[in-house]
Design brief:
Mean pLDDT of chain A: 90
Number of strands of chain B: 11
Order of helices and strands of chain A: EEEEEEEEEEE
Strand content of chain B: over 45%
Largest sheet of chain A: 7 strands, mixed
Helix content of chain A: under 10%
Mean pLDDT of chain B: 92
Largest interface: A-B, 27 and 27 residues
Oligomer: heterodimer
Low-confidence stretches of chain A: none
Largest sheet of chain B: 6 strands, mixed
Shape of chain A: globular
Number of strands of chain A: 11
Low-confidence stretches of chain B: none
Structural class of chain A: mainly beta
Radius of gyration of chain B: 14 Å
Distance between the termini of chain A: 37 Å
Radius of gyration of chain A: 14 Å
Structural class of chain B: mainly beta
Shape of chain B: globular
């Protein structure tokens, strides 16, 4: 069964450092997402990406964050200067090419646990 | 009012019990609804979609009440392996794109 893969599974970094979280969405999916979940809290939307551009972003996704699809398979989330409060599990997700279909299901990767020290 | 609201629980139920979770949503224009399951420190996984007519998948039954803007999940004959957090997810078409909003989740603990 096709799956979304994320690397690394754990990332430890110093405050102020840049990190890049990597994701390989399911190959025929066209919509890509990043979510984060701070320990003990809800899953929060960060950004959605379609047709090589951001389609929507939340207030969390400020200038410190950026996304990129550098080639046909990878989808990355970059945090330019990490803060302590960026520590969270970051989930990548993709959904089927349903366009504006109303029943898009999200397929999640297993997440990258980011710890900012 | 929160966009998607759930009772965080925990719901502690004995094996074999029936348990129900509710979820309310604030945007009446929301179009599609799902229940996801999340195990501790794992990714959310789709449990089932929720259809207007209600739908069943084995021991799981989902219902949607658009008038009252809530969805429900019923689990019959609870198993130990059902212990997890159940996430209510609502899709809304926002400016031509899908906006996917998660509830905080309801924690279920099935006790032997």
């Amino acid at each position: 069964e096709p799956e979304v893969t994320q690397t690394p599974s754990h990332q430890v970094t110093q405050m102020g450092q840049e990190v890049i979280l990597r994701c390989v969405p399911i190959s025929n999916h066209l919509y890509f997402y990043w979510y984060r979940q701070i320990l003990g809290q809800k899953v929060e939307f960060l950004v959605s990406f379609y047709n090589n551009e951001i389609s929507e972003k939340s207030e969390i996704f400020d200038d410190q964050f950026s996304v990129e699809r550098p080639d046909g398979s990878n989808f990355t989330l970059k945090i330019r200067s990490t803060k302590l409060e960026d520590s969270a599990m970051y989930f990548c997700a993709s959904s089927e090419p349903g366009g504006l279909a109303t029943n898009e299901k999200l397929f999640f990767g297993s997440g990258t646990q980011l710890s900012v020290l | 009012r929160k966009e998607v609201e759930q009772d965080p629980g925990p719901f502690n139920v004995p094996e074999g019990a029936t348990v129900a979770f509710n979820c309310t949503y604030s945007n009446s224009a929301s179009q599609s609804f799902f229940w996801y399951r999340q195990d501790c420190r794992k990714e959310p996984k789709l449990l089932m979609s929720v259809y207007s007519s209600g739908n069943e998948d084995g021991r799981f039954t989902a219902q949607l009440n658009r008038a009252s803007q809530y969805i429900s999940l019923l689990i019959r004959d609870s198993k130990l392996s059902d212990s997890a957090t159940y996430l209510c997810v609502v899709n809304t078409n926002s400016g031509g794109y899908q906006k996917v909003t998660f509830g905080t989740g309801t924690k279920l603990q099935v006790i032997p």
